[in-house]
Amino acid sequence: MGAVIESVSQDLRYAFRGLVKNPGFALVALMTLALGIGVNTAIFSVVYAVLLRPLPYNHPERLALVWSTFQSAGSRAPSSGVILGEIARRNRVFEDVAAIWMGEGTFTGDLNPEQVKVGFVTPNFLAVLGVRPALGRLFEPDELFGGRPVLILSNGLWQRRYGGDPGILGKGIAFQGMSATVVGVLPPDFELHFAPDSGVSRDIQAFAPFGYDIYRAPPTLYFLRLVARLKPGVSWVRAQEDVDSAAAEIRRSYTEFAAENLKFDVAPMHGDSVRDIRAALVALFAGAGFVLLICCVNVANLLLARASDRRKEVAVRAALGASQGRILRQFMTEGILICTVAGGLGLAVGWAGVRWLLVLLPDSLARLSKAQLNWPVLAFAAAICLVSVLLFGLAPSLESARRDFIQTLREGGRGAETPLRRGMLRALIVSEIALGFVLVIGAGLMIHTLVRLQQVQTGFEPRRVLTFGIDLSGRHYQNNVARINFVREWEAKLKTIPGVESVGAISHLPLDDYSNWYSPYRPEGVTSSRAAALLADYRAVTPGYFHSMGTRLLEGRQFDEQDRVDGRKVVVVDDMLARATWPGQSAVGKKIEAEFLTNEGFRNVWAEVAGVVGHVRDHSLAGQLRGQIYIPFEQSARNHLSYAIRTRVEPLALADTVRRELRQRDPDLAISKIRPMTVYVEHAKAPASFTAILAAIFAGLALLLAAIGIYGVAYYSVSRRMHEMGVRMALGAEGSDLVLLVMREGLALTALGMALGLVGSLAVSRLLQGLIYGVSATDPVSYAVAVAVIPAAAILGCWRPSRQAAAANPVDAMRAE
Q: How far is CA 185 from CA 110, 188, 193, 211, 582, in A?
C-alpha cells in the first residue's frame, strides 16, 4: 500500500511541476474547464431546485392533481362541488381528496387595510398536502361551510402584519368586515406548487374554509382545483384507471356530465407544477452540456498537442522501464489534477452564475429562488469533473499508447504528425463545430421567439396605464346595490385627480393570475346541447374600461352610463368570437344567452350584442385561448375589480394619491398590486427572455470556444509543418497561397462539422417546438445566422496561424529540420 501511495504521490508532483512549467497551457486549460463546469453547475442548481427537488410536503410523491376534461372545455378544467363529492365517494385509490379556489380578502382593524390572496378550501386541504402548522392547528371538519369564521395565516403575513405574536392564536382579527379567529400559522417554507394556468397562486397569504356548502352548488359550477393523496403503493397507472371507472359511473348518474363526456386526468403534483417550464430547463441543461463538451474538446486538443511535444520525454521514460500502464496513469493523473483545480474554480463560477440567475428570475420559475450549491449540486459538479477527465484525458493517453517509442528516440523527438494524431484532432474539431452549430440554431430560435413576442398585438395599449385591485366582499358590500353605488362614486372621484385621462375597471385584468371566469354561451338558433361546446371568457367591465386600456372598438358601441342594472341586457364581444359565431355577418344586434352574475347567483340571460372589440391576450402573449364576452359591471357586479387608469403622467406618480383617496372613502378597503400595466406585459415575456438570454450566452460561448479550438489545431498544425511550409515557399509559393492552404483546411473541417450540426439541429429544433412562438422549427433566419457566424468563427481561429505560415522564412524553416 505504501508503494502505491508513493507512486501516486510522484505522479501528482510530476503533474503539478508540468503545469507550473507551462503556465500558458495550464491557464487556458483551467479557465476553459472552469467555464464549462461552472455553467453546468449553475444550470443544474436550477434544474435541481425546480425539477428534481421534492416538494416540501409529507410524502410529496403521493400527491396528485385531478383535472376534469369536458367535451366543450377541453382538458385541465376545474371541477364542481358535486364532482368533488362523487370522486371522494367512488374512488378506491385516494386516501383523501380536497379542493381549493383562490380569491381575495381584506384584513382591516387597527392597522392599515391589506388586501391579500386567500385560499378558500375544504377543511382537509392542508392535511391532504401533509402540512404541519408552525403554530396552532389545521382546520377541523366541524369548521366546514359557514360556521364561525376561522383563518390559517401564512408565516409571512403573520410576521409582517402581526409581528410574529404567538398570542394571536384563538383571537379574532378583522377580516372582510367580520371577526375571524386565527387557529394556525403555516411554516416559513410553505408554498403552494400549482402550474401557472391553474388559477392558484404560490403566494396565498391566508386560508379559510368555504363559506357555503359547495357540495350542493350547481353541478356545472366548475371552479374547484382538486388535490388528492394516493394510498401507499398505488401506481399512477392504477390511479388513472380508477378515476376512469369513477368518471364512467358519474356520467351514468348525471345527464349534465354525460352530455359533456366527463373524464378525469390524474397528474403528479410536482410534475404538473413544472409542466410549462420543464422543456425550457431541459433544453438549457442540454445546452450547458454542449458547452461542457466543447470545453472538453478544446482541452483534449491542448493535451494532444502537448503530448505530441512530450513524445521524446515519454519515449525516454518507456526506455527506462516505465510500463504502458504507468505512462497512461501519468496522463490520467494530470487530467485529474487539472479537473480538480478547474472544479474548484468552476464552483466559484457556478455560485456567481446562480446569483445572476436569481436576478433574471421569471415568475414561472418560482422555485429558482431555492437554487443553491447544496450537496446534490456539489455531487453533480464532482460527477462532471470525473466525466471531463474521461472525455479529454483518454485522448492523449490512447494516442501515447499507440506510439512507437524506439522510432521516436531515433527521430530525436521530432517528426511529422502521425495519421492517428491528426485524425483525432480533426475529429474533435468537427464535433466541436457540430455542437456549436446546434447551440447557435437553438439560440436563434429563442431570440426570434422573443422578437415575435415583442411584436405581438396584445389587444390593448399598456403604456401610461396604472392598475390596481380592490375587493368589495366586506360587510358594507353584501349586495349588488352597495357595490354599484360605491363604484359609481369611486370612479367619479378618480376622474377628478390631476393627470388622469380616463378610468375603467374589469373583473379579470389581462395577464393577471386571478382565477379565470369562462362558461358556455348560446347564440340564437343553437340548441343547448350544441351550445355546451361554445365557450368564452367572461369579463365584467365599467363603461370607461375599453378607452382606458386602449382596446379598439371595431363595430357598434362601447358600454355607457345607460347600461344600468335595470336596463336592457347587453354585451360586447371580441372579434374572435364574432367571426366564429357569425362568420361573414355583423355581430351587432345579434342575441346570445350569456352568464350574468345576479343577486341569485350565476344565471343565463339573453342579451343583445352592442359592439365588437379587438381580441385581448388575456392569458399569455403566445396564444389565443377563447373568445371574450364583456358584460356591464352594473348588470353583473363582481366582488373583485381591477382598475385601469390612463394617465397623462408617469403612472406610479399617482399611486399615493389613489391610496389616499380610497382611505378617505372607505378605511376598510385596501388596494392590491398597484403597478403600471407594462409590468404585466414584461412578466408575460419573462420566461422567453430568460431562455433566450441563456441560449444566447451558450451560443456565444460555443462560438468563442470553437474559434479557440480551431486556432489551437491550426496553430499546432502549422508549427508541425514549418518544414513543409519552407519547401513550398522555396518552390515559389506565395504567402497568400499558404494563407489559403491553412484557411482551406480549417474551413473544410468547419463545413463537415456544420453538416453534422445541421442534422443534429433539425432533430433538436423540433424538440424546442413547444418553446417557440411565431417561428418555424426550421426558421430560415436562424439557420442563415448559424451558417454565417460559424464560418466567421472558423476564419477568426485560422487567421493568425495562416499569417504565421505566410511569414515563414524558407531558409530558417528548412534549417530547423
A: 20, 9, 18, 20, 53
Q: What is the 3-state secondary structure (H, E, C) of 335-391?
A: HHHHHHHHHHHHHHHHHHHHHHHHHCCCHHHHHHHHCCCCHHHHHHHHHHHHHHHHH
CA-CA distance, 674 to 466, in Å (whole number)?
Answer: 7
Letter for the amino acid at 666?
Answer: D
* E strand map for 135-259: 135-136, 150-153, 172-175, 178-185, 206-209, 225-230
Distance (Å) of CA 210 to CA 32, 145, 224, 598 = 58, 6, 11, 20
Alpha-carbon gap, residue 654 to 677, rounded angstroms: 14
Q: Is 732 left (phi over 0), alpha (psi -120 to 50) or beta?
A: left
Concatenating the DSSP letter of every residue in 618-637 gives -S-TT----EEEEEEGGGS-
Predicted confidence (pLDDT) at residue 598 exceeds the cutoff of 90: no
Side-chain-facing half-sphere of 691: CA atoms under 13 Å:
32
pLDDT digits (tens, 9 = 90+) for 305-340: 666 656 666 666 656 556 666 666 777 777 778 878
Q: How confident is the model at residue 479 (pLDDT cuts 50, 70, 90)?
A: confident
CA distances from 458 to 350, 362, 571, 660, 678 (A): 37, 20, 21, 32, 11
Question: For the chain, what percentages of helix, strand and coil (3-state, to nearest 5) are there?
Answer: 55, 20, 30
- Which amino acid makes up residue 759? V
Which of the four pLDDT bands, split at 50, 70 and 90, describes residue 422? low
- Angle of helix 278-309 relative to helix 375-401, nearest 10 degrees, comes to 30
The Cα 172–Cα 175 span in angstroms is 9
Alpha carbon dihedral 700, 704, 706, 708, in 10-degree steps, equals -170
Which run of H or of E encompasses 673? strand 672-676
Specify the 3-state DSSP secondary structure of 602: strand
Distance CA(507)–CA(637), nearest Å, equals 9
Look up residue 795 and give its three cell numbers. Answer: 476564419
Tell whether the torsion through CA atoms of 795, 801, 807 and 810 is positive or negative. negative
CA quadruple 232, 238, 244, 246: dihedral sign: negative
Pairing of strands 601-613, 570-574: parallel
Residues contacting residue 644 through CB under 8 Å, at least 6 positions apart: 465, 466, 467, 503, 504, 505, 506, 509, 545, 548, 549, 677
DSSP string, 12-43: HHHHHHHHHH-HHHHHHHHHHHHHHHHHHHHH
Nearest to 392 by CA among 286, 303, 288: 303
Beta bridge partners of 518: 537
- Burial (Cβ within 10 Å: 0-12, 13-18, ≥19) of residue 800: middle
Residue owning grid cell 499508447 = 401
How many helices (H) and strands (E) are present in the chain, helices listed first? 24, 23
